[in-house]
Amino acid sequence: MRKLTLAAGFAAVGAVGYRLVVSGELTLDTGIGRRVRPLGPVTMRIAADPETVFDVIAAPYLGRTPRALQAEIEVLERAEEMVLAAHRTPVAGGLVTTTVETVRFDRPRTVAFRLVRGPVPHVVERFTLAAEAGSTRLDYTGELGTDFWSVGRLWGDLVARSWVATVEGSLQRIRAEAERRAKPRQGPSDSPPSAPNIMPD
Q: Would you give the distance in Å from CA 163 to the centre of its chain?
């Protein structure tokens, strides 16, 4: 009976610890057995100039955060070229991971992120923008580090998959908004007549 009680106690502690780590409330940063793995790279071409793409990325941090992003991004402190921001991301099991990161801006070339608190002890990321053939090439690179050797590496692989998937979703939104802003505006009288659709969909 005593063994069952102890097992139940360890299981409860483990469950609480798991929730705290996943949610970002508990960061295990010991430096012991640190393993670092890459994030990305992810490359995207956007039909807009680098200034426009940079503005789309920076707007929620340097300006007023749009209502649609207020549940995801909260600026805690703001300076001219850097902010401290909390990012909230829903994950499996109904949990929400909250990360706190510094975000630095070098217009119009780079936006760099460094993790302060989250489910892993070390993350650095960078968006690099370059003009290319009338559009913008956006390169995402980064690295993620965990402690405790192979156990930490397994946890890091799991976090990295979710992390990169979240970034890719953000990049799709950035591209859509940047291309919308860059698209020439046409009034009704400027719009060319539409040709009949003679091809099957």
A: 7
